[in-house]
Every structure is written in C-alpha cells, then in structure tokens.
Design a protein that fits this description.
- The protein is mainly alpha-helical.
- It is 62% helix and 2% strand.
- The protein has a domain of 120 residues: Up-down Bundle (Hypothetical Protein Ta1238, Chain: A), CATH 1.20.1200.
C-alpha cells in the first residue's frame, strides 16, 4: 500500500511533519497540546482569582504559569531544533515547586482521587501530559536513536510534579478536600 504523503496545498497541511513516521512528531503534537492546556489553565485561573482576590498564592501561581507557557513550547522544539530549556529554567521551576510543596505539605499525603474547582482538572491533565511526553522522549532516544538532552525529561518530570502540586494549592485555597485513594493493587 502506498504511504500517505502531504499534498501540495499548504492550506491542507496543519503541520510540516504531520506525515512523518517518527514518534518525534507525536511528541511535538503532545507538547503543543500541553502548551494549549497551560494557556487554558491560566484563563481559568484568572476567573477563579476573581473569587479569591486576596489570595497571594493564586496570584503567584498565575505568574508562574505565565512564565511556564513559553517554556512548554520550548520543550516542544528542543529535540528537533535547538535545545531551549536551560539549567536556569530547571532551577527556577524547582524553586517554584518547592515553595508550593512547602505551602501545601499539610494538605495532602499520598495518592488522592482527582477533583476540585477549575482549573484543577486542566492542571491534572497537564501533569498527565508531561508523563506522556517523558515516555515519548524515552522511546525517541532509546528506540529511534535520536538524541534527547538529559535536561528535557528532567524538566518534564519536575513539571509534572509542579502541575500536581498546583492542584493541591488551588484546592487548599478554595477549601476543596481531596479524597485519599487507597489502592487495592499496591499495599
């Protein structure tokens, strides 16, 4: 069977690499989607902040998400193109994460069932998308033999944890109580 190929009409091509067989295209589509989800979370957070105008934690989160938004696009292009995630970016994210972790340390211990007011669901999805991106990086590097700089999965792992902690922070501010999850599979 003949392989699908792009046609000559640029208006009928959504992405230059959409027909390539490498998982790199899947990674780029996923991280593009991640960036769009972060934009959505920022928008939803702006609405939430109207209800909690005195919350400095939500304002800080909004500032940090706006800082992260272009970094998600940099994560997107850093395998095919020039590496655009720096150690300084990673260190700043680590500091932001640790600050939120300290703020939320009494709110949660262990696994919880997802829930809370918007943008909690969007940020939970962002966290999951980071895991998917990491898995694709592993396959791109190990199976397709395409170099993936160590900073990229390191940053994406931290980003995953940051997004989750952001959900805990929002739930703490809004008074939503997470339901602990007790696994029947792992004891």
């Amino acid at each position: 069977m003949k392989k699908l190929r792009p046609k000559s009409n640029i208006d009928e091509l959504c992405y230059p690499y959409i027909y390539e067989e490498s998982l790199l295209c899947d990674y780029e589509i996923l991280t593009d989607d991640l960036t769009r989800m972060v934009g959505w979370a920022i928008s939803e957070l702006g609405i939430l902040r109207q209800q909690y105008t005195e919350s400095t934690a939500l304002k800080t989160l909004e500032n940090e998400l706006n800082w992260l938004l272009p970094l998600c696009y940099h994560l997107n292009g850093s395998i095919r193109g020039t590496l655009a995630i720096t150690e300084e970016d990673h260190q700043q994210l680590l500091e932001n994460y640790r600050n939120f972790k300290k703020t939320t340390e009494k709110s949660i211990s262990g696994f919880v069932l997802p829930g809370g007011v918007s943008p909690v669901g969007v940020l939970n999805k962002c966290s999951s998308m980071c895991k998917q991106a990491i898995r694709l990086m592993v396959k791109i590097h190990n199976e397709e033999q395409k170099e993936v700089a160590e900073i990229l999965p390191k940053f994406a792992n931290l980003l995953c944890n940051y997004f989750f902690t952001a959900t805990v922070l929002i739930n703490q501010v809004t008074g939503f109580k997470e339901t602990p999850f007790v696994s029947k599979s792992y004891k």
